[in-house]
Amino acid sequence: MDISGYWPLLLAGLVGSFAHEGMRALSAFVDGVRPGATELAWSVLLIVLGAAAPLLYGTGTRSFFEAVQLGVSIPAIVSLGFRAATPQSVRAEPRGAGYPRWANYLSWRF
Q: What span, in angstroms and rounded, lies between the C-alpha atoms of 67 and 65?
């Protein structure tokens, strides 16, 4: 299915970024960690940035799944960046002891 235009691409990006952040929040709840206000604010910011990602490539015709994948990419890249920037010694400790809770949340350490 092909889509084009500002709003359809924005909504497709929103679907992708919301799916990624929804999985992160669900994983935190499953692990018994309730995300706080700071963590949820970061999630909302990443959802908004992910929703806008397909628009960076213009509003021309593209596949719906391509736009969704572009929406997922921003939260995924940020998570990977936080995880990669964490020293190996901190990764070995449970829940990234010594790092702020929001940084652990963004790198999927609950």
A: 5
N-terminal to C-terminal alpha carbon distance within the chain: 37
- DSSP character at residue 67: H
Instruction: State residue 40 phi and psi, 5-degree precision.
Output: -70, -35
Taking the model in full, what pTM does it have? 0.85
Q: How far apart are CA 19 and CA 2, in angstroms?
A: 20
- Write the pLDDT tens digit of every residue in 88-103: 666 556 655 667 778 7
Residue 57 has what DSSP assignment?
G
Residue linked to tokens 């799916």: 19
